[in-house]
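INSTRUCTION: Work out how this chain folds

Fields: amino acid sequence; protein backbone structure tokens

Chain under study, with its fold:
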Amino acid sequence: MKATTPRPWTAKRCTHGWHIGPQPDGVCTIRDNTDGSNAAEQEANARLIAAAPELQAAAEAAIRYDESIAGRATRGEYDLSNRGGGITEGEDLDALYADWITKANAALAKAT
């Protein structure tokens, strides 16, 4: 995994937009539109970018968890047939699982 700018990242309002990353200057800036439009969208984008390190950590944790469960199942230490825990009847667990892992891997690939 490549190193990133140290945490914590924040989104801080500045005179011309949003500084994102470690303060005071951040790692990037989202500049205000000259006409003032899309202010709410710009703030949401700034906050999403500032959450990137945490999103990366969450994706890495999910993949580690998955690898652990798969390893235990392969060794016969974990019974995958016991899949309770609030899953709605009729949901395709294999499809939900594949979707989760695909999204986690895509998030990591984009973040690194």
User: Anything to note?
Assistant: Helices lie at 39-50, 52-74, 93-111.
